[in-house]
Amino acid sequence: MNDLESASLDITGESCPMTFVRTRLALDRLPDGGRLRVRLRGAVPLDNVSRSVRQLGHAITAQIDHGCEIHEIMIVKSSR
């Protein structure tokens, strides 16, 4: 996968609703099937971003807990 098909986003300094807004903007720049790695802080942003991304039809293929309330999710953009 080349750089045009994958991206990383660190939103650990953001709060809701900006966590999802920034995630959505990053997904919009990716082609269908592209992968977005999102690093966020706290259970609320994790739940909100994950739920909203799934509602848009995208898939979350991995979720990693880094401790200290830092989480990372891998999103695959759907062709929807």
From TrEMBL:
It comes from the Bacteria. InterPro entries: TusA-like (IPR001455), TusA-like_sf (IPR036868). Gene3D superfamilies: TusA-like domain. The keyword Transferase applies. Pfam families: TusA. Keywords: Transferase. GO terms for molecular function: transferase activity. Residues 9-33 form the UPF0033 domain. The keyword Translocase does not apply. This is Sulfurtransferase TusA family protein. It comes from Gluconacetobacter sacchari. The lineage of its organism: Bacteria, Pseudomonadati, Pseudomonadota, Alphaproteobacteria, Acetobacterales.
